[in-house]
Every structure is written in C-alpha cells, then in structure tokens.
C-alpha cells in the first residue's frame, strides 16, 4: 500500500505515536494504565511502531548541526565594495593677499582643487595642518588640536591694508572629531591636547579661494591640528601616519605651507623677471623626492633633500615645508603627484595630491 520510502522513514509514524500515547494516558477505560511504568508503556508502543523507530538515529542531534549554509569551494560570496581612501592634499597657500589677488596664476588653481574636493571627493570632514601653527611655550614633542565648535580667525600678519583684517571664513568645528584625533595620536605615543584656537591665515586665506562661501562652500566640519614646534621631518612623517586612518572615513587631510618660502629674500627678488635660483632647484628636487613610487624610498629622499646646499636658502626656517612631510606620512603607500607649480621671486607654489580620486559614477 505504501511506497518503500515511507516504511524507511520513522518520521512518518511520529504523529500516530503521539496520538497513541495521549490516548493511553487519557483514556478512562484503561485504569490499569496507572499501574504501568514508563518502560512498560514503551514496550506496549513497540507493538504498534516499527523497531527502526526506537533505534539510535544515524543523523546528528539538532543541537550539533551547523546553522551556517554550506558553501562549495567554487562559490564566490560577493562583498560590499570598499570605500576608497580620501586623497591627501598639500596647498602652497601664499600670503594673506592670495584671496584678494584674483589675477595671480595660483588663484584658479586653488579654485580647481577646491571644486575637486567638494564635487568629486565629497568629504565627510576636513582636517588641516597649517604652517602657521607651531605651539609656543611647549616642548618639541607636543601637538595641539582645535576642539572648539565655533572659533574666530587669527590675523597673524602685519602691514597689510585694513580690509585684510576683516576677512571672514565660515566654518564649524567638531569636538568629537578632535577627540578622536587626540586618541589616534595617543595610540602612536604622540602627546596631544585639545584647546580652542582660531583659524590662522594659512587656513582661511587659501580656503577662501578653494572654498569660497558663495560658490563652493566647505559645508563639512573643519578641525585644525598643529605641527610640532620643530624642524624634525621624521616626527612630522609620524604625525601624518598617526592620522592616516581618518582617510578611511572619507575625511580629507589638507596640509598647507609653501614648497619654497624665503621672506628674507622677498624684497630682493620681487619684481625680478627670473626667480631666485634656489626657488627652481629646490622645488624641482622636492618634486622628484615626493613622486618616488615606493613609500619608503619617498621618505628617504624627502629627508635627503633637506641636506641639499639650497635647502636653507629655500627655507631659512622649515615651518612651511613640514606640512608636506605630514601629508606624505598620511598618504601611507599612496603615491604623491605634483599637480601644479610656479616659481616666483623667493617662493615656489607647488600643489600636491597623494592618492587617487574616486571613480566617476
């Protein structure tokens, strides 16, 4: 009557078995049932059920079975695409006049870089290191982080027209991001503390060109971090390395300074048809070092370039160059590329980007 597969499957008898047990236990016509023990009841049930039902099952108990679906060795599990790391930028920012000198060749260059950041990278936040913030009255191994949400500007220059001291740049800080940066620095054994400080012109002058509030606003949190109060390139490499994980959160790191910066010679060279020789030679040597494809080789060459005879001419004090070393450290293994430069008097205006832009969708 039944196919053989039914007779081989004990589960076919489970429901009848339950019915029989309940009937035996609940039937008032079986008073002798109360005198039977559980083994005796099971013995009686064997007269109704096949022997195979009471044998030890050959399958594993439910509690020992894996709930993970089996995957063959040829099965490919799709993973969500990994978000590319945000690029790192170095701005040669110029003086406080850069935001007013719309005819200078660097003006459209900074505008273009700003649009690249806001329209292609679309960062979740910006962290900036400026040549104009080296903490005073502290040791050479301490970093400060602006942890204020709202700050004023610092007009850290003198001798300029009155309207220069009325410049504005709307920005909003992020105490939580600042705290996170401090914790990253602590993990790298870098002493750091938060404080409230305004944005210096190394930030707001160039940013007013790259991110003009009326046409290309930087509508994300902005946190400024200091340099070390030193000319130690290795320390600044490590500073960049300590914060490079921010890039995985699509936070853009911008380091601002100048690739050649000699204020002492500015009056001698300004207006001359040819730039100072060291402005050309040092800027070119720096480009070759930064664009080394291997990260370790890049670090070695960038340290070596500081020992060149023209290095002290290009930078009597290295404050405007150290941000480039932070950028190279934050880049990790990503290559650096000079996107533009110009040699003018005792200055060089090289702009750099480390890493790739996100692919167009």
List the helices and strands and how they pair.
Layout lengths: L3 H4 L6 H13 L11 H8 L42 E5 L13 H16 L3 E6 L11 E5 L28 H13 L3 E5 L5 H10 L11 E4 L7 H10 L8 E7 L2 E2 L4 H4 L7 H14 L4 H10 L6 H4 L7 H10 L4 E5 L2 E2 L2 E2 L2 E4 L7
Parallel strand pairs: 1-6, 2-5, 2-6, 3-4
Antiparallel strand pairs: 1-11, 7-10, 8-11, 9-10
Helix pairs in contact: 4-6, 7-12, 9-10
Protein name: Extradiol ring-cleavage dioxygenase class III enzyme subunit B domain-containing protein
Family: Belongs to the DODA-type extradiol aromatic ring-opening dioxygenase family.
Pfam family, one: LigB
Explained architecture:
By secondary structure, the protein is of the alpha/beta class. The chain is 32% helix and 13% strand. It is built from 12 helices and 11 strands. The protein has helices spanning 4-7, 14-26, 38-45, 106-121, 175-187, 201-210, 233-242, 266-269, 277-290, 295-304, 311-314, 322-331, and strands at 88-92, 125-130, 142-146, 191-195, 222-225, 251-257, 260-261, 336-340, 343-344, 347-348, 351-354. Strand 3 (142-146), helix 5 and strand 4 (191-195) form a beta-alpha-beta unit. This is Extradiol ring-cleavage dioxygenase class III enzyme subunit B domain-containing protein.
